[in-house]
Structure to design on (476 residues):
């Protein structure tokens, strides 16, 4: 596949997700929280984040290891896929058992445990779905990746849309069950598509199971540490404060938009991982791909951060019925962390593809400790605002550490002209938003106008081009 064609797939992938996922986040999930209220949704948010702490059991690095393996080994996939899916089923059962035991030590109210199990079941189904669909980009079927990247959200728009807009009634259980059904349907469709590409069947041996766990565990530690410093804020807000989970619900309102932005960065990384792995196995120059992908990610980050930073209260008031100043204050700080998150998907993906994970895991462990300490210090006094500050500091710290690891281990040489161009672009974006925000327009028109100007500037400055990926990858 030509670089131009692949670049076009990236644009198509982002466009599809820009249509579907914001519709789900802003049109469905926001309305779910409006109907549930910040307290009830805060409980769900706390339990959801608690489940992330045990993701290592559910996926001890199998996803990243599998993508890297497929990109570098196209033969023998039939037996490999069957073995890994069987192993994931065993791990899923273990995950649910350990999650139930761990929940007992959190002193949750009795009625929380049913919700915790249901959310854990959704984690299991999501993990299986992500694993199955990860085969398509790794094998070069990028159009299928586009379809499956939005399938679960399209199903949720249908299932939840009926409840929030037609029935105008929803509770935590029906919300969680809707997610369950959406994942089951998506898994069935994804399996049917995978069966058309590869003839595989389930097979399992304890020896092979142990081998997979041993090889992939170092990848799993990366996911575990990232989950801890990304998700402990929601758990600590719900546990440290005696406010009936109100601050957790407020924080979740802003975090939902950060999560929505994160989806696009994650899509980018899912495509970059097999590309980096392919270049590394061929011992080819990584610098062009790093530079160009970082520039494109910078544009995405700047557009999202500036829009959120200059219009935080307007956005929160537009979305949430019970908007209060704390909503906008915490979101305005929180959205800055997207710069660290987005750029980490470039640097961290390369480190993962190269298998340089020992120092990477140490860095992430320091990030976990830093985030825990800052949350412990700031949440009791500043509630959701303190959690947002802790997230920004942690994400920027970890991103800078990843950049240094990439620079040292992969001999990355940034182009000075590109660095200066990036700095100029960031300054220009801030100035555009600042001056347009002073114009007495409806805030949404101001935000959209500024974003369009910034995007046009990114094309004129050469930060975004359709042919940014020059490497050719086989398409079966």
């Amino acid at each position: 596949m030509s670089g131009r064609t692949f670049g076009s797939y990236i644009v198509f992938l982002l466009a599809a997700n820009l249509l579907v996922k914001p519709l789900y986040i802003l049109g469905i999930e926001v309305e779910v929280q409006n109907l549930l209220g910040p307290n009830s949704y805060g409980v769900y948010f706390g339990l959801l984040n608690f489940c992330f702490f045990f993701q290592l059991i559910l996926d001890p690095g199998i996803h990243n290891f599998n993508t890297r393996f497929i990109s570098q080994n196209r033969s023998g996939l039939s037996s490999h896929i069957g073995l890994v899916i069987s192993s994931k089923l065993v791990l899923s059962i273990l995950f649910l058992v350990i999650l139930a035991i761990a929940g007992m030590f959190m002193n949750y109210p009795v009625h929380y445990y049913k919700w915790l199990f249901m959310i854990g079941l959704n984690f299991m189904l999501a993990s299986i779905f992500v694993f199955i669909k990860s085969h398509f980009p790794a094998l070069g079927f990028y159009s299928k990746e586009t379809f499956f990247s939005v399938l679960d959200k399209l199903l949720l728009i249908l299932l939840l849309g009926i409840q929030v807009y037609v029935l105008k009634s929803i509770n935590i259980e029906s919300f969680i069950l809707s997610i369950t059904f959406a994942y089951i349907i998506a898994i069935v469709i994804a399996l049917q598509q995978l069966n058309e590409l590869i003839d595989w069947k389930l097979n399992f041996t304890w020896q092979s199971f142990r081998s997979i766990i041993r090889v992939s565990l170092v990848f799993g530690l990366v996911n575990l540490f990232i989950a801890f410093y990304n998700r402990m804020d929601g758990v600590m807000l719900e546990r440290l404060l005696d406010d009936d989970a109100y601050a957790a619900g407020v924080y979740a309102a802003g975090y939902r938009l950060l999560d929505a932005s994160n989806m696009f960065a994650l899509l980018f990384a899912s495509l970059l991982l097999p590309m980096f792995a392919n270049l590394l196995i061929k011992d080819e120059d990584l610098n062009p791909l790093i530079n160009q992908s970082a520039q494109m990610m910078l544009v995405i980050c700047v557009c999202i951060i500036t829009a959120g930073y200059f219009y935080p209260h307007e956005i929160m008031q537009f979305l949430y019925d019970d908007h209060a100043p704390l909503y906008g204050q915490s979101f305005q700080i929180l959205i800055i962390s997207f710069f660290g998150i987005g750029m980490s998907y470039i640097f961290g993906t390369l480190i993962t593809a190269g298998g340089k994970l020992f120092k990477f895991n140490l860095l992430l462990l320091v990030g976990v400790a830093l985030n825990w300490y800052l949350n412990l210090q700031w949440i009791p006094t500043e509630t959701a605002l303190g959690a947002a500050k802790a997230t920004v500091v942690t994400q920027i710290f970890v991103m800078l550490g990843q950049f240094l690891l990439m620079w040292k281990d992969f001999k990355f040489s940034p182009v000075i002209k590109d660095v200066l161009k990036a700095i100029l672009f960031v300054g220009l974006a801030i100035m555009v938003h600042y001056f347009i925000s002073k114009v007495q327009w409806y805030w949404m028109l101001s935000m959209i106008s500024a974003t369009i100007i910034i995007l046009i500037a990114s094309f004129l400055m050469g930060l975004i081009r359709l042919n940014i990926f020059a490497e050719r990858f086989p398409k079966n």
Observations:
- The longest helix spans residues 358-409.
- Confidence is low (pLDDT under 50) at residues 1-5, 469-476.
